[in-house]
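Thread title: Can someone regenerate the structure for this chain?

I was given the following input by a collaborator and told the matching structure tokens would be attached. They weren't. Posting the sequence so someone can regenerate them.
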Amino acid sequence: MKKLLVFTMAAMVSFVAMGQIETPQPSPAAKIWQTVGLTEVTVDYSRPSMRGRTIYGDLVPFGALWRTGANAYTKITFNKDVTIGEKPVKAGTYSIFTKPGEKEWEVFFYTDTQGGGVPREWDESKVVAHTKVATMPMEMPVETFTMTIDDVTNKGANLGIIWENTYVAVPFTVGTDTEVVANIERVMAGPSAGDYYASAVYYATEGKDITKAKEWMDKAMAMTENPRFWQLRQQSLILAKAGDKKGAIETAKKSLAGAEEAGNQDYVKMNKDSLKEWGAL
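Best answer:
Regenerated them for you:
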């Protein structure tokens, strides 16, 4: 019995040890990342190899939905809105499915991103974009399934799908021009109220030029239709530091009234403490 137990324990240790051995995956994972204009694009996929097999029209039948790779769904992530096949697509992560054909492929961008193979039940409402693209034959075969982001410009790029003797390019465009023009117009219009306010508070907090901080705060308040009690609080502190006690007291009283109306007891106390310090209570 003792010998049998020793043998069983040894077998278990051997089995556990075998379970810890790492071996290469037949379709290893891959990830590509590319900036297109001002948009970040990431593709996560797995890479099967030909291994002497005929791929398109055989392993991957023509006209059938394909997971476009191996293992888990192939996924693409856009950190900003894009356009695919003239269809606006919101920023986010989507799975990619295809229907390969001899001369043309259908490409689908799908909202479900968890799973492997193809969906058991295809839901057309989950297709955010559907486009058709022509196949391009290649003279030199590519052994391992490959995805790329090619022909990158500020306006867009092509999502490339390469395997065997076929290359497929799926074009997408990005909103670089709209974004850049908006940024230019914003900057050229001058600092916003928020820019002036943040700069004034920083200067005052860090003990920098208080005259400049007051100037910026005055501009921020002039550009703000209804200053909130926390903004008025910062303005009162800057006025006090700048030597304008009267202005500080008037502003603190406005901040106090706003804080009381909002039920913010922290700001009520801070304003009352300052008004006492400045001899107004």
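The radius of gyration is 32 Å.
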